[in-house]
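Hi, here's the filled form for the chain we discussed.

Project: internal
Contact: R.S.
Residues: 100
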Amino acid sequence: MSKMFVKTGDTVQVLSGKSKGVRGEVLAVSPKENKVIVKKVNVVTKHVKPRKMGEPGGLIDVESALYASKVQLVCPKCNEATRVGRKDGKRVCKKCGAEF
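And the returned structure, exactly as it came back:
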């Protein structure tokens, strides 16, 4: 299990795939699988069966997980996608040096 460079609530930019260049908020992080779920990115259609009486079934759109290596953190200060460094236990922007 590796340490993740993104946390829930961070803003990230997608580097590859059909959603390339899109920015979104991280909804969930899975360090065991090294995957993240980003809001409104990698949306798939899921077939849902009604479970309770009166609950509708059908097709719903759900965000699917993607590998953490396909996203890059967006610095809140310089507003650019950047790599992340570590300094005194805190995450640091490699471009401007701002702490996250």
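Let me know if anything looks off before we file it.
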